[in-house]
Amino acid sequence: MRRFFSKVISLIYPPKCIFCKQLLEHDASIYVCDSCYEKLPFLKMEIMSVFTDAGNNHCDGVVSVFEYTGVVKESLIRFKFYNEPSYYKTYARVIDDRVSKLLDMNDYQLVMSVPLHKDREFSRGYNQAYLISKELSRTIKLKECSGAIVRSRQTQTQSLLDKQRRSQNVMGAFEVTKPAKVAGKSILLVDDIFTTGATLEECSRVLKAAGAAKVTAVVVATGRRYLI
């Protein structure tokens, strides 16, 4: 029934490329036209480290699909700040393709998103990372468990801060409210953009403190290229 209604909606409101708005076929699996796809800044198939000293990271690695540049950067800004929540389906599907090639999915039990503070989520209308996480959990058939971690205090916008201040900004900002859900589990932690890594590292730290066995971050795009 869900598939039927999805097809009906796509016929009434044909999907559009998330980069150039060109109309696509109603049964398109990802909302990217052929012309834009050829321009996408795909990263090499690599697992990155949050920081250059991989041995001191709480996050066990980062998988990113794109470089944060060009049409990808523009689309993520629209997704995050200009009320384009429908982009999440395409982002989740390209992440799914990447993680299935780089990771052994049998090693993981949970998918969850980096949380927004409730006030920021209310003002924005959605948590963009949660939308991706929810769709990704459906496509890779792992349990979505974003409710186990919250952002317990409001923080400044990370993009406005330098590297050192970003780490200070998020320190102590997250809390695992349901530790029994994450104890002993290997987790895919979803976010949209990986920059300095401060947010992913702090989320991973509190998840590990609550008993998580492994935390691998998965993101749409990054400007970083540090290998494990």
CA gyration radius, whole angstroms: 17 Å
Discrete helix count: 9
CATH architecture of the largest domain: 3-Layer(aba) Sandwich
Largest sheet: 5 strands, parallel
Helix content: 25-40%
Which percent band covers the strand fraction? Answer: 15-25%
The largest beta-sheet arranges its strands as 1-7-6-2-3
Helix-strand topology string: HHEHHEHHEEHEHEHE
By CATH reckoning, the class of the largest domain would read Alpha Beta
Average pLDDT: 87
Instruction: Quickly count the domains.
Output: 2
CATH topology of the largest domain: Rossmann fold
Helix and strand composition category = alpha/beta
**End-to-end separation:** 44 Å
Number of strands: 7
Keywords:
38% helix, globular, 228 residues, two-stranded antiparallel sheet, 7 strands, 16% strand, five-stranded parallel beta sheet, 9 helices, Rossmann fold, alpha/beta
Please describe what this structure looks like:
- The protein folds into two domains: 39 residues, no CATH class; 183 residues, Rossmann fold.
- It contains nine helices and seven strands, in the order H-H-E-H-H-E-H-H-E-E-H-E-H-E-H-E.
- The strands form two sheets. The protein has a five-stranded parallel sheet with strand order 1-7-6-2-3.
- Strand 6, helix 9 and strand 7 form a beta-alpha-beta unit.
- Helix 4 packs across helix 6.
- The protein starts with a helix and ends in a 6-residue tail after the last strand.
- 39% of the residues are buried.
